[in-house]
Amino acid sequence: MKTLLLILGVAAILMGLLWIGQGTGLIHWPASSFMLDQRPWALRGAILAVVGLGLIILSRRR
User: How far is the C-alpha of 57 from the C-alpha of 43, rounded, in Å?
Assistant: First the structure.
């Protein structure tokens, strides 16, 4: 269970960082993404990254 939480947490952080990069226009990959330069996706990415951090902390405490 700890390993699963850790993997999900890392995946959530990486996906959140990608969403932040796309939402702020720093990452233009893939070029046809609907998330490019869309600020709501930066906020959603930040929330997802915080959730991922919480999962990692939870996996370390159990």
Answer: 21
